[in-house]
Amino acid sequence: MEVGPARRTEAILGWGNPMERIRNKIFSVDEANELIPFLEQALDSIAAIGREIMSLKGEIQVLSAIEGSGATSKNLDVRLLREKEARCTQMLDQFRDALLQVASHGCILRDLDLGLIDFYTMSRDRVVCLCWRRGETRVSHWHSIDEGFSGRRPLAELP
Fold first, then answer.
1. Residue spans per domain, the chain
2. Within the chain, how many helices (H) and strands (E) appear?
3. What is the C-alpha separation between 131 and 150, in angstroms, rounded?
Protein backbone atom coordinates (compact mmCIF):
# COMPACT_ATOMS: atom_id res chain seq x y z
CA MET A 1 0.00 0.00 0.00
CA GLU A 2 1.40 3.39 -1.01
CA VAL A 3 1.39 5.95 1.78
CA GLY A 4 1.07 9.68 1.30
CA PRO A 5 3.88 12.12 2.02
CA ALA A 6 2.59 13.15 5.44
CA ARG A 7 2.23 9.53 6.49
CA ARG A 8 5.68 8.76 5.03
CA THR A 9 7.19 11.53 7.15
CA GLU A 10 5.40 10.10 10.19
CA ALA A 11 6.76 6.65 9.29
CA ILE A 12 10.28 8.05 9.08
CA LEU A 13 10.02 9.95 12.34
CA GLY A 14 8.01 7.37 14.18
CA TRP A 15 5.50 9.85 15.64
CA GLY A 16 2.09 11.19 14.80
CA ASN A 17 2.27 14.95 15.01
CA PRO A 18 3.85 16.09 18.26
CA MET A 19 6.19 18.46 16.42
CA GLU A 20 6.72 21.58 18.41
CA ARG A 21 4.13 24.16 17.43
CA ILE A 22 5.95 27.00 15.75
CA ARG A 23 4.34 30.37 15.20
CA ASN A 24 3.78 31.06 11.53
CA LYS A 25 4.27 34.51 10.13
CA ILE A 26 2.61 36.61 7.47
CA PHE A 27 4.84 36.90 4.39
CA SER A 28 5.03 39.33 1.53
CA VAL A 29 5.77 37.80 -1.86
CA ASP A 30 9.30 39.24 -1.68
CA GLU A 31 9.90 37.74 1.76
CA ALA A 32 8.75 34.33 0.54
CA ASN A 33 10.96 34.58 -2.55
CA GLU A 34 13.97 35.40 -0.39
CA LEU A 35 13.61 32.01 1.32
CA ILE A 36 13.64 29.96 -1.89
CA PRO A 37 17.43 29.30 -2.01
CA PHE A 38 17.36 28.15 1.61
CA LEU A 39 14.27 26.00 0.97
CA GLU A 40 15.77 24.34 -2.11
CA GLN A 41 18.83 23.31 -0.10
CA ALA A 42 16.81 22.29 2.95
CA LEU A 43 14.39 20.14 0.93
CA ASP A 44 17.30 18.40 -0.81
CA SER A 45 18.84 17.64 2.56
CA ILE A 46 15.58 16.50 4.17
CA ALA A 47 14.77 14.22 1.22
CA ALA A 48 18.25 12.65 1.29
CA ILE A 49 18.06 12.07 5.04
CA GLY A 50 14.57 10.57 4.67
CA ARG A 51 15.76 8.16 1.98
CA GLU A 52 18.64 7.04 4.17
CA ILE A 53 16.32 6.51 7.15
CA MET A 54 13.92 4.40 5.10
CA SER A 55 16.82 2.32 3.80
CA LEU A 56 18.17 1.84 7.31
CA LYS A 57 14.73 0.83 8.59
CA GLY A 58 14.55 -1.86 5.91
CA GLU A 59 17.98 -3.18 6.84
CA ILE A 60 17.11 -3.07 10.54
CA GLN A 61 13.96 -5.11 9.88
CA VAL A 62 15.96 -7.86 8.17
CA LEU A 63 18.72 -7.85 10.78
CA SER A 64 16.12 -7.89 13.60
CA ALA A 65 14.60 -11.01 12.10
CA ILE A 66 18.03 -12.64 12.15
CA GLU A 67 18.50 -11.66 15.78
CA GLY A 68 14.99 -12.88 16.59
CA SER A 69 15.81 -16.30 15.21
CA GLY A 70 18.36 -16.87 17.95
CA ALA A 71 21.54 -15.12 16.83
CA THR A 72 23.62 -13.88 19.74
CA SER A 73 25.59 -10.69 20.23
CA LYS A 74 28.65 -12.53 18.90
CA ASN A 75 26.98 -12.79 15.49
CA LEU A 76 28.22 -10.24 12.94
CA ASP A 77 24.65 -9.48 11.82
CA VAL A 78 23.58 -8.66 15.39
CA ARG A 79 26.55 -6.30 15.79
CA LEU A 80 25.64 -4.73 12.44
CA LEU A 81 22.05 -4.37 13.66
CA ARG A 82 23.21 -2.31 16.65
CA GLU A 83 25.29 -0.08 14.35
CA LYS A 84 22.34 0.44 12.00
CA GLU A 85 20.02 1.23 14.92
CA ALA A 86 22.46 3.84 16.23
CA ARG A 87 22.85 5.36 12.76
CA CYS A 88 19.07 5.45 12.29
CA THR A 89 18.64 7.26 15.62
CA GLN A 90 21.25 9.81 14.55
CA MET A 91 19.55 10.32 11.17
CA LEU A 92 16.14 10.73 12.82
CA ASP A 93 17.58 13.53 14.96
CA GLN A 94 18.98 15.20 11.83
CA PHE A 95 15.63 14.82 10.06
CA ARG A 96 13.72 16.41 12.94
CA ASP A 97 16.24 19.23 13.20
CA ALA A 98 16.00 19.95 9.45
CA LEU A 99 12.19 20.00 9.57
CA LEU A 100 12.25 22.33 12.57
CA GLN A 101 14.71 24.61 10.80
CA VAL A 102 12.31 24.97 7.85
CA ALA A 103 9.35 25.50 10.17
CA SER A 104 11.26 28.06 12.24
CA HIS A 105 11.23 30.39 9.23
CA GLY A 106 7.43 30.52 9.47
CA CYS A 107 6.60 28.65 6.28
CA ILE A 108 4.68 25.38 6.11
CA LEU A 109 6.04 22.24 4.49
CA ARG A 110 2.93 20.66 2.96
CA ASP A 111 4.46 17.83 0.93
CA LEU A 112 8.06 16.71 1.15
CA ASP A 113 7.96 14.52 -1.97
CA LEU A 114 6.60 17.33 -4.15
CA GLY A 115 8.44 20.06 -2.28
CA LEU A 116 5.30 22.07 -1.58
CA ILE A 117 5.66 25.02 0.75
CA ASP A 118 2.96 27.48 1.80
CA PHE A 119 3.48 30.96 3.21
CA TYR A 120 0.63 32.75 4.92
CA THR A 121 -0.10 36.18 3.46
CA MET A 122 -2.85 38.76 3.69
CA SER A 123 -5.20 39.51 0.84
CA ARG A 124 -7.50 42.36 1.74
CA ASP A 125 -8.90 41.25 5.08
CA ARG A 126 -8.26 37.50 4.94
CA VAL A 127 -5.32 35.15 5.25
CA VAL A 128 -4.46 33.08 2.17
CA CYS A 129 -1.44 31.02 1.22
CA LEU A 130 1.32 31.88 -1.17
CA CYS A 131 2.20 28.56 -2.73
CA TRP A 132 5.63 27.48 -3.93
CA ARG A 133 6.72 24.17 -5.41
CA ARG A 134 10.30 22.98 -5.45
CA GLY A 135 11.95 23.83 -8.74
CA GLU A 136 9.98 27.02 -9.28
CA THR A 137 12.25 30.06 -9.38
CA ARG A 138 9.83 32.25 -7.45
CA VAL A 139 6.47 32.24 -5.73
CA SER A 140 3.94 32.70 -8.50
CA HIS A 141 0.75 31.12 -7.12
CA TRP A 142 -1.62 31.36 -4.19
CA HIS A 143 -4.62 29.46 -2.84
CA SER A 144 -7.15 29.84 -0.08
CA ILE A 145 -6.38 28.12 3.18
CA ASP A 146 -9.08 25.51 2.55
CA GLU A 147 -8.18 24.61 -1.03
CA GLY A 148 -4.54 23.59 -0.98
CA PHE A 149 -2.39 22.84 -4.01
CA SER A 150 -5.32 21.81 -6.22
CA GLY A 151 -6.73 25.32 -5.84
CA ARG A 152 -3.56 27.12 -6.93
CA ARG A 153 -4.10 30.30 -8.91
CA PRO A 154 -1.62 32.76 -10.42
CA LEU A 155 -0.64 35.67 -8.19
CA ALA A 156 -2.20 38.02 -10.77
CA GLU A 157 -5.60 36.67 -9.60
CA LEU A 158 -4.94 37.46 -5.94
CA PRO A 159 -7.64 39.91 -4.82
1. 24-157
2. 3, 5
3. 11
